[in-house]
Amino acid sequence: MPASDSDPRPSASHTKSSSRAVALHVLLEVERRHVFADEAFQQLTKNSPLSTVDRGLAFDLVFGVLRHRGHLDWRLHALTKKSLSGLPTIIVMILRLGAYQLLYLDRIPDSAAVNECVKLAKRVKGRDWSGVVNGVLRNLTRQADPPWPDPTEDPVQALSIRYSCPPWLTQRWIDRFGFDRAEEICRQSNSIPPLTLRTNALRASRHKLKERLQAEGYSVTETVVSPLGLTLGKCGTLTTLTALQEGWCYVEDEAAQLVPFLLDVQPGHRVLDACAAPGGKATNLASLMKDQGEILAVDRSAQRLQALQENIVRLGITCIHPVVGSWSEGWATASPLRAFCEKGLDRILVDAPCSGLGVVRRHPEAKWQKSVDQFPDHQRFQGEILHQVSTYLRPGGVLVYSACSAEPEETTEVITQFCLAHPEFRHEEVVTWLPSGAKALTTPEGDLMTLGSPYDMDGFFAARLQKV
Asked: Which residues does the UniProt record annotate as the domain SAM-dependent MTase RsmB/NOP-type (predicted)?
């Protein structure tokens, strides 16, 4: 990075600008290290002196900039004398922070938004960029909103700018689904997701959880498709949600809640969750099994498995055994993993690492970090995992492959290639095992696909394979 990209640290003495400084710091971490924005935010604010209000503003700024980056850059580009790509990264981020406040946050006066961004620019080492930031943002306050690009002239640009979706991804969705459905998918991918809970049936029924939450003053709605889900209105921080802390529920999108149903697990089954952390699907499987049987939860990240272990304890589950292991190199050296698999498995879940393009509304940074060039590597790794784990499935056993993506390279093509190489597996239609409300969410091939559904859920794919 250029010298002028040095990172301005948030200062406790800057009570008015600390929210912007923290947001800028997080955005730079995301840009430099390609980390999840929520994880970077938690890491950088865990010892912060920010008040609850300022912390909320900082969070809003981070995710607002990432969610609307395409539109912000379009507006800023018209006001800069040279391309944004010619400016230091830190100045671009400051301009985006200012533009987001000016265009999307009515509660912040324009003058305050501009002045606080100018202060941030003055703290950047090297050249003084405060004049540039001040000039661009003040011109933005004076500029009338330009008309959106005409979709009849350039449909890709029109959707990319209106919904801040990268042009390469917009083009793919238009080619696959047509303009109208692509627009709906772009709109959904840029929306703010709901807070959805999955009931922990080991502790309570959905009805009982709903009654408790309502008695505590929360606005609660039952999910339409998943029989386990509840959607909450504004509820403050999750640390105040006592039902969550006491293990009555788990935060999980409605689409993700559907995948474990496809395995049709039964009490006493031996199950492998091959890519388990942080444990949403593994803990759902344990609940469906009534905590009777064995689930080996494997992940290559010890840190993420720690989160799984904490969830197991909180939810009161005893049948899940976390193991650190990799399916690419040296997995057999993890003796608990190998010993468990060699005894034979009744069910296997491969919730494969992927682009995550089905969950970009939760991780908007992913839109700007991914490219079509990454798909071949993803596909090879996904296929390798399937090949390795499939050996240990007993005849009659079931393997479910899922991904938080709808891109063919990471979904249907993986299944097609696997079935060609493994004729002992039968590709089954999932409709039999889905909850009744989800039966419309299937593809002509019989797989689960939630991208672009009429429900407010993430984009997931899942296929069911039986070893015959």
From this structure: 185-468
Quick one: tokens of 97? 């922070």
For 287-335, strand residue ranges (E) read 294-299, 320-324
When computed from its CA atoms, the radius of gyration of the chain, rounded to whole angstroms, is 24
Tell me the binding residues for S-adenosyl-L-methionine: 275-281, 299, 351
**292 with 267: CB under 8 angstroms?**
yes
Which element (helix H / strand E) includes 73? helix 69-77
Q: Which residues contact 465 (CB under 8 A, 6 or more apart)?
A: 398, 399, 400, 401, 415, 418, 419, 425, 426, 427, 428
The torsion angles phi and psi of 297, rounded to 5 degrees, stand at -105, 110
Is there a single domain that holds both residue 62 and residue 168? Answer: no
Write the single-letter amino acid at 417.
Q
**% helix, strand, coil for the chain, step of 5:** 50, 15, 35
User: Rounded to an integer, what distance in angstroms lies between the CA atom of residue 228 and that of residue 103?
Assistant: 38
Give the CA-trace dihedral at 303, 307, 308, 311, to 10 degrees. 170
The more confidently predicted of residues 14 and 264 is 264
Predicted structure pTM score: 0.91
Assigned token pair, 118: 């100018």
Say if residues 311 and 283 touch (Cβ distance below 8 Å): yes
Contacts of 272 (CB under 8 A, 6+ apart): 295, 296, 298, 340, 341, 345, 347, 348, 349, 389, 392
DSSP conformational letter for 442: B
Total domains in the fold of the chain: 3
Strands 270-273 and 229-232, by their bridges, are unpaired
Tokens 């935010």 belong to residue: 41
Least confident of 40-49, 182-191, 205-214: 40-49
DSSP count for the chain of H helices, then E strands: 19, 12
In the annotated binding site, the residues are 275-281, 299, 351
The gap between the terminal CA atoms of the chain, to the nearest Å, is 55
Per annotation, catalytic residue among 165, 186, 341, 404: 404
pLDDT in tens, 364-378: 999 999 999 999 999
pLDDT of residue 59: 95
Quick check: is 324 in a domain? yes
Indicate whether 375 and 400 sit together in one domain: yes
42 and 160 belong to one structural domain: no
Q: Domain of 181?
A: 155-189
d(CA 266, CA 433): 13
Per-residue confidence (pLDDT) for residue 341, from 0 to 100: 84
| Model confidence at 385: pLDDT above 60 | yes
Q: Using the 3D structure, point to which of 81, 116, 142 is the last residue of a domain.
A: 142
Q: Is 186 a catalytic residue?
A: no
